[in-house]
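Section 5.1 Outputs to date
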Amino acid sequence: MTTVEHAPAELHRHTHGPGCGHDALVHRDHVDYLHDGHLHREHVTDRGVHYDECDKCKCAHCTDSCAQCDCSECDCPTCNHAQCACDGCADSCANCTCAECSCPTCSHAA
């Protein structure tokens, strides 16, 4: 069994989505919503829906969220701009579709 870490955000009085009044940022396989200076993403469970905080960049010198990080030398595997390390691939890890990807930070790599 795999456990997924998540950090629930404060309670919401509305559902984030198009037209909710919060800016949306695509981050890997989900959408984060900018809410009062931080980012939330929807998390559906068998007990209902709540919102989690977006992942924080794991670079030693960064305090931003992965959806907004713009570190010039970022090595965080969950940041939007992490680049695929496969030969000949120019995509970000979030968008890489290499059939036999060997990059350790791509979301589909085995």
